[in-house]
Amino acid sequence: MIYKVLRFVSHIFNSSNQYSVHSPVVYKLLTECIYKEERKILKKNIQFLNLRLVNLYKKQFLIHTIDNILSNKVSEILEANGRKKENTILLIKNIKLKNEYSCWKKLIIGKEIQVSIDFYYFGILILKVHKLQKQDYIIRL
Question: Are 82 and 129 in contact (CB under 8 A)?
């Protein structure tokens, strides 16, 4: 319980909003997808976000939703993306727990992840064919 409180307080102090984002891809994602939905809906059920991502980015990105970051599905998608070389967005639920967050931290260190966005309740990873500068954002809802 103490871990959750400390992690949440740390997230609030270290997070920013869309105005501190330098990437046009991430800024568009924040302004047109994330901040258009109500916060309470996104915290409990991110299927609305998934639908909005599919509607806006279906021509540019493959979009995957992952329920558990500890499953092998993340590594399978990363391996498949390494072979196919496609632009991909991974929407990962529940990264706020201790084990999941440590796995999230290990995952975003990897070279194949160009952009990571931590929203405390969920995370988004962006893998692009054309290399972006590696950026890790902590954004508050």
Answer: no
